[in-house]
Amino acid sequence: MLGTFKFWREAGSFEARRTWGNAEVAVSLNGGWDERADYIGEVAAVALGARIFWADQPGWQARIEDCIRRDLFELAQEWAADADETITPDDLIARIRIDGIGFEPGGHFCVWYDGGTAFCGGHGVTVVGKLETGPEYAEMHG
Fold it and tell me: In 10 A of CB 133, how many CB atoms?
């Protein structure tokens, strides 16, 4: 399902590109593993969490988008009003593009989006959460 990853020593992570929905995204298994020799079990646990997440793409995508709407729609409306535009919650989702998903020890994950035109360009969106509780918050950055 997730295939082979390459170890990126500088970041201490395992990296790959995979399909999420209709998009190709960067996938990373993060843990600062270049500094330790005893990380095999931890990598396996993070990879298992990633596989569980990946197996329910529609469910996770819906939860992630709900989090973005909840946490960033008001901000997106402000930015749109400044540009003399209007935006709906679905417009917000349509204007951003998923770039990558990172998984970390303890069941933590982070989903990165290119903010597209949602925030007048040049800004991204990050969704942070845990596998057992779901997305916790979304924020704009950049």
Answer: 8
Distance between CA atoms of 17 and 2, rounded to whole angstroms? Answer: 9
Q: Has residue 85 been placed in a domain?
A: yes
Q: What is the pLDDT of residue 97?
A: 95
Contacts of 104 (CB under 8 A, 6+ apart): 30, 31, 46, 110
Structural domain span for residue 55: 6-141
Residue 42 has pLDDT above 90, yes or no: no
- The predicted-structure confidence for 44-60, as pLDDT tens digits, reads as follows 999 999 999 999 999 99
State how far the Cα of 127 lies from the Cα of 137, in Å rounded to an integer.
6
For the record, the structure tokens of 37 come out as 């020799």
Three-class SS state of 96: coil
Residue 65 counted as domain residue: yes
Continuous H helices in 17-115: 40-55, 57-82, 89-95
Map residue 106 onto helix, strand or coil. Answer: helix
Angstrom distance (rounded) from CA 75 to CA 31? 32
Note whether residue 29 is domain-resident.
yes
